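Quick one before lunch.
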Amino acid sequence: MIERYCQSCGRMMREEQDYGREGDGCRNENYCSHCYRNGQFTEPNLTRWQIVARILPIWMKEKHLTYRDALVDANYFISSLRRWHARQIWT
Ligand SMILES: [Zn+2]
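Model of the zinc ion complex:
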């Protein structure tokens, strides 16, 4: 089974229902069902910083990181995702 990271939020997509959907019902290989639905982003105005802020507490807990380390790691990871790749650091 192929595991992919959502290219918006970094969530792991394992099952068929984890994938986002195009308007015609086909699955989108790049984005998860939370981020992408009916052929568009569920939160089109979402910023990279908002995504980082969401995963920060999860990473601090799961990886036993300090706030500062989690911030650096999370920002680095999110920045590598397709949706945010070409954008400025804090936008
Ligand atoms: Zn996602």
